[in-house]
Amino acid sequence: QVQLVESGGGLVQPGGSLRLSCAASLSIFSRRSMGWYRQAPGKQRELVARITSTMSAYYADSVKGRFTISRDNAKNTVYLQMNSLKPEDTAVYYCNVYPLGIGPYWGQGTQVTVSS
Q1: Residue-wise pLDDT tens digits, 9-37
Q2: In this predicted model, what pLDDT tens digit does every residue of 50-102 receive, in sequence order?
Q3: Which of 1, 34, 81, 104 has an alpha carbon 20 to 30 Å from 64's alpha carbon atom?
Q4: pLDDT digits over 34-49, tens only?
Q5: 3-class secondary structure for the chain?
Q6: Starting from the edge strand earliest in sequence, which strands make up the sheet with 77-82, in order?
Q7: Rounded to an integer, what distance in angstroms lies between the CA atom of residue 63 and that of residue 23?
Q8: How many other CB atoms are there within 10 angstroms of residue 75's CB atom?
């Protein structure tokens, strides 16, 4: 059964931190690169970070130095530590495989709102 369950979002002030988690079914997670994506209102979904099965990580320029992606292969879970959050980081955050296939399945996502 395909499953992606994101959690950890919330409301945070600028400069604050959040840690997102994504529990994935083994069929999705096993030996695959995973990514965190986000979609802000009125904008297309974009990739913010990805990590290979061997722990190599890559980041969008907009989050480099502030976000850290990690994964626990034993738990089929991927994490996104977000520090120094900015209002422009406000979005619904999703995890999924990287690269995406045709017609990918998406979980419900987790809302991150950065506002004072």
Answers
A1: 999 999 999 999 999 988 878 889 999 99
A2: 999 999 999 999 999 999 999 999 999 999 999 999 999 999 999 999 999 88
A3: 104
A4: 999 999 999 999 999 9
A5: CCCEEEECCEEECCCCCEEEEEEECHHHHCCCEEEEEEECCCCCCEEEEEECCCCCEEECCCCCCCEEEEEECCCCEEEEEECCCCHHHCEEEEEEEECCCCCCCCCCCEEEEECC
A6: 4-7, 18-24, 77-82, 67-72
A7: 22
A8: 12
Contact 51, 109 (CB under 8 A): no
35/49 Cα distance (integer angstroms): 6
The answer to whether the CB of 98 falls within 8 A of the CB of 35 is yes
